Amino acid sequence: MTTNQPPRIATWMLKHFGSGLNNDVVLGDLVEQYRQNGNAMWYWRQTMKAIPVSFFRDIRGHKWAAARAVLTGWVLWILYVTTIFPLITPNFFGGNWGVELDPRHPVGTAWCGASRWATRYRSARGIPSRHRGRNPPA
Questions:
Q1: What is the pTM assigned to this prediction?
Q2: Per-residue pLDDT tens over the stretch 37-91
Q3: Domain boundaries, the chain
């Protein structure tokens, strides 16, 4: 006897990444519809749509908590970039490595630092860098 069970991974993703009070209700409705039509692609589409919808619905329902979380994250990131990061950089990465720390642009600073660190890491270990541009250096 075979049962018409929905895709397990999609169900697991909805259980773990879906949020909201009615997550079990949505999951039950999707399983019921799946057992009627048996279309796995439809089930995947519905679960992948339900996850962000429930996420944004929770954010919309808790606007102040979401705003405080984003603001707290930015404040902690700026404090890290301006105070802690300059103190540990010489100890772990060997002094000045050409990254300007600019608290007005914390995301750009993070990307510059990460790319500079990766370049130094590769060159220190003899790993050739990949050039994806049209004209690789000669």
A1: 0.54
A2: 889 999 999 999 999 999 899 899 999 999 999 999 999 988 887 787 777 766 5
A3: 8-61, 64-124
Residue with tokens 């929770």: 58
d(CA 10, CA 7): 6
The string of pLDDT tens digits covering residues 31-52 is 999 999 889 999 999 999 999 9
User: DSSP secondary structure string, the chain?
Assistant: ----PPPHHHHHHHHHH--STTHHHHHHHHHHHHHHH--HHHHHHHHHHHHHHHHHHHHHHTHHHHHHHHHHHHHHHHHIIIIIHHHHHHHHH-S--S----TT-HHHHHHHHHHHHHHHHHHHTTPPPP--SSS---
The phi-psi region of residue 129 (left if phi > 0; otherwise alpha if psi is between -120 and 50; otherwise beta) is beta
